[in-house]
Amino acid sequence: MMRSDSRLSRMLHVLIHMDQHEAPLTSEMIALMLNTNPVVLRRTMAGLRDKGYVQSEKGHGGGWKLSRSLDEISLLDVYLALGEPSVFALGPTSDHPSCLVEQAVNAAVGDALREAETHLLGRFAKVTIADIARDFGVRARDHGIQF
Questions:
Q1: d(Cα 58, Cα 136) in Å, to the nearest integer?
Q2: Three-class secondary structure of residue 120 per DSSP
Q3: Where are the domains of the chain?
Q4: Under DSSP, is residue 54 helix (H, G, I), strand (E, B) or coil?
Q5: Among 38, 89, 110, 124, which is disulfide-ready with 2 (CB 3.0 to 4.6 Å)?
Q6: What values do phi and psi take at 54, rounded to 5?
Q7: pLDDT tens-digit profile of 14-34?
Q8: pTM for this structure?
Q9: Is CATH 1.10.10.10 the right assignment for the domain spanning 7-142?
């Protein structure tokens, strides 16, 4: 089974945590939270920084902090900042490009995947990180956790 790309979910997680903290979060703190390496985290966060969603400060008291409010950042924004990772593990084959059966299969599968991806990315554009944070708030209250 192909390993899934969890960068989108992980970065959404990080952005919501960043919103919950007044002080910047260091790469080490975030990496520990996500059980990953700080270097990998910084590489992933760089795309968000380049798009202006987060900023990093060096030195004592430095770290990562939000540059925009969560209601100004959509799932699509984060997806694009991550370099538009493939949303599906499925894809066409190219074993026998001259085979008419393979061409027909690839056309049908390709059309369906493009339609599904268009729908998914349209949905991503409608959901902000603030929407997810509000859902988290409801879940937290339902579990007796106050923020």
A1: 30
A2: helix
A3: 7-142
A4: strand
A5: 89
A6: -135, 165
A7: 999 999 998 999 999 999 999
A8: 0.87
A9: yes
